[in-house]
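Postdoc handover notes: sequence design on the structure in folder B. Input tokens:
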């Protein structure tokens, strides 16, 4: 893995806003610096010419402040197991610029924080502050940049597991909900319990994940598929049915639509 530090990740205004948030939460932070860190997974060592091209590609934005030796660092990267949109674009650009040895480029953020009086932050303080420096839905915090190697790891896919609903009851669903971060509401847990109890089998982790995804605030399938009433009048079509109506009236060229989270059209 090759690491290259880049430009400032936050404007001066955003840095001051971040400082106000940290101080308001009770953390004695004197100053903060946010800097992009570029991480490259290489298939072969880069030549000096290739290194020059890569450096030019990653030269953008305003320069970050110098690194203070007494500052604590919090390393934030895209959520482990995911590939960020920035990575997809940057990797494609690198390949088109002749950098075939670069298998993937990813970008993280280094937050360097100085404590009032030059003291050292405790581990507990850094862990607490990291919660304000990243979005756990899309980002992960690493102990250091050496650990960023895990971004490019290709572990074996985990085996399908069953949630012991038959043995542990609704508590098994509640435990899986918390462990997997599904954010299922009590009514949804009740629905799943009744449904799989009726089937007489335990649900799989994949089934719960797909159910949570389809019913999330992002997809809102249950909202769009709900009965739709306008000015007190029940409508013949749900909101989602209205979306599908266009395809129903004009299906030409469509091989598959609204199935398995995908669509296929004739080319």
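Designed sequence:
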């Amino acid at each position: 893995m090759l690491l290259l530090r880049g430009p400032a990740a936050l404007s001066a205004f955003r840095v001051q806003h971040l400082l106000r948030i940290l101080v308001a939460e009770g953390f004695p932070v004197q100053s903060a610096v946010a800097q992009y860190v570029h991480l490259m997974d290489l298939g072969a060592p880069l030549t000096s010419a290739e290194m020059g091209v890569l450096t030019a590609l990653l030269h953008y934005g305003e320069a970050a402040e110098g690194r203070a030796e007494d500052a604590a660092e919090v390393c934030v990267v895209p959520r482990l197991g995911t590939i960020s949109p920035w990575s997809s674009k940057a990797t494609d650009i690198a390949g088109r610029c002749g950098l075939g040895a670069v298998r993937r480029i990813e970008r993280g953020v280094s937050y360097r924080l100085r404590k009032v009086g030059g003291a050292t932050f405790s581990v507990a303080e850094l862990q607490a502050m990291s919660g304000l420096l990243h979005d756990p839905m899309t980002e992960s915090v690493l102990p250091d940049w050496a650990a960023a190697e895990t971004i490019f790891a290709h572990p074996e896919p985990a085996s399908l597991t069953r949630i012991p609903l038959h043995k542990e009851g609704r508590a098994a669903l509640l435990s899986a909900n918390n462990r997997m971060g599904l954010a299922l509401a009590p009514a949804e847990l009740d629905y799943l319990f009744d449904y799989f109890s009726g089937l007489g089998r335990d649900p799989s982790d994949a089934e719960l994940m797909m159910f949570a995804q389809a019913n999330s605030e992002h997809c809102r399938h249950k909202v769009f598929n709900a009965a739709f009433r306008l000015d007190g009048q029940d409508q013949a079509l749900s909101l989602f049915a209205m979306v599908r109506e266009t395809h129903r009236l004009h299906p030409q060229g469509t091989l598959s639509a609204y199935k398995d989270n995908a669509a296929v059209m004739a080319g």
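Context for whoever picks this up: The beta strands are 2-8, 29-42, 72-78, 102-115, 139-142, 229-230, 233-234, 254-259, 262-265. Don't rerun without checking with the PI first.
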